[in-house]
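Checklist before submission:
- one chain only
- standard amino acids only
- sequence pasted in full

Submission:
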Amino acid sequence: MFEVETYLRRLGFSEVPAPDAETLRLLHKRHLMSLAYDSSHFIKSFTGFRNVVDIDVDATFRAIVVEGAGGVCHDLSGLFRRLLTELGYDVSILAASQRWPNGQFGPDFEHTFNCVRLDGETWLVDVGFAGPSYLEPLRMTEEVQHQFGCAYRLTADGSHHVLERRAVVGDWRSVYRFELTARSVSDWDSPQDTASEEIVKNSLFAGTALRGRATDNGQLVLTGRRLLTVDDGHESIRTLIDKAEFEGVVKDILAGTGNG
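Returned file contents:
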């Protein structure tokens, strides 16, 4: 059963906080540090985007918050949306598409995250992205925003906003693109782009598990055996050949921490 107090304790809160911008920042960061992204189960069961956002909140809460399993965007963002709503935030569902290796964006509904409207401002809130991405909420603004050594900006692509990120070294890279249109769970009830769904099933989810978790000043992103470490905006990549080391990194990512 979904319980606000249990959820908050998992994120390091001893009491119910006020629904303000600072609380949102802390909740977002601690969520990414405490509850891991893990697609290893999802890739085995994915058949399309229909109904995937309509999670069983109680069962998902028990598996992820209570028992410590990882989840994908629909699980993690769905739980966080329920928590924020219970705390009194004005929350909406957003849909996004990621840029694929061929340079094109995927289907608009492949990723789910949230936005919060608070004190006249709109904040992007995403605790269900493996990374690398933002660790704290981002304001919808034309200004460049900085977090833990990385820079973020929003650019235009037709009717879409494109969220871009830049590490200490390197160029701007797209995280995903989206329309600032509030969605409902029913928007995923019918196929949006069956051709793109087939591409997703045959490529992105072709047996390669994606796992990720935030650290105090960065992120760990494990794609198969390829580990990306972000530390104060500095990125390093290496392949984990040794089985014991690989299993240790997976364990570390899934364990999480309540601090931050």
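Reviewer check: The chain is about 30% helix and 30% strand.
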